[in-house]
Amino acid sequence: MSDSSPALSEIPANLPRHVAIIMDGNGRWAERRGSPRFAGHKAGVEAVRNVVEICGELGIQALTLFAFSSENWRRPKKEVGLLLDLFITALEREVNKLHNNRVQLRVIGDIKAFPAKLQQRIHEAMQLTATNQGLILNIAANYGGKWDITQAMRKLAIRIAAGELPPDAVTEELITNELSMHDLPEPDLFIRTGGEQRISNFLIWQLAYSELYFTESLWPDFDRVEFIKALQSFSLRQRRFGQTGAQIVALEKDQRNRA
Ligand code: FPP
Fold first, then answer.
1. What amino acid positions are annotated as catalytic residues?
2. What DSSP element (H or E) covers 254?
3. Cα(217) to centroid(ligand 1), Å
4. What structural domains does the chain harbor?
5. pLDDT tens string for the chain (259 positions)?
């Protein structure tokens, strides 16, 4: 642990089960150093490693990282190519370490659009780590929230067209069951680095009740200290899920009495 690591006592007791992150600011981090944008993405991989490590240490159930959005294809061709190469290298270098640390790696998104080699590395990594019982690490790649809802609706439409499912029987639960990560709790905490305050077509359905945390910190600078600041902010939020504050206080009191 570095000197700047917060003491264990600074880690709040009520941790999120699932954290979702938009890792923004790699390009600016590099440009501020007079380096090419790609240097920021490379430094971003280090920050990914740190956050995965700390989530594993804290026993957080799931971490979902937005690595490449459906819209990122619009970037200059050279940057897209370098990013895809970086994913291949990162998978090749990190997968054994992730496996040894019991991390279960999943990739969500439309990966059929990726080069064959990257698809192969993704399948190998998912297969190797599939039964691991530690942190579930979801990498969102060629992912978009609208894509996710569309593919879910398409599956339901097929069942409706086949006469298996009456349209009236379509419920929120049935839609949820067809979405990526339907077997995980929805993210309790959403973090976006880099100063922008947007969801940017990330998990638009699954973030409906998430606590949102925005930080100016650029992704390569997002270290343990910054992550723990986000956890501390989360721990102070009162999650009401449509109820009143008074109802939540009464519920918490009741739970304490039963314990
Ligand atoms: C956004 O920063 C970042 C990305 C589009 C890529 C994210 C990729 C990584 C962190 C590295 C690899 C990750 C894995 C999981 C292997 P930006 O380029 O939009 O930054 P800017 O807003 O400063 O231009």
1. 24, 72
2. helix 245-258
3. 13
4. 14-258 (3.40.1180.10)
5. 444 555 556 899 999 999 999 999 999 999 999 999 999 999 999 999 999 999 999 999 999 999 999 999 999 999 999 999 999 999 999 999 999 999 999 999 999 999 999 999 999 999 999 999 999 999 999 999 999 999 999 999 999 999 999 999 999 999 999 999 999 999 999 999 999 999 999 999 999 999 999 999 999 999 999 999 999 999 999 777 788 888 778 888 888 888 7
d(CA 143, CA 179): 12
Name all residues whose Cβ lies below 6 A of ligand 1: 23-28, 41, 44-45, 48, 65, 67, 72, 86-87, 90, 139, 194, 219
Cα–Cα distance list, 211 to 55, 86, 207 (Å): 17, 31, 8
Helix (H, G, I), strand (E, B) or coil at 18: strand
CA–CA distance, 228 with 163 (Å, rounded to integer): 50
Q: What is the pTM of this model?
A: 0.92
Ligand 1 center–CA 44 separation, angstroms:
7
Q: Residue 165 burial (CB < 10 Å; 0-12/13-18/19+)?
A: middle
From the CA of 80, how far away is ligand 1's center (Å)?
11
Residue nearest to atom 16 of ligand 1 (CA): 87
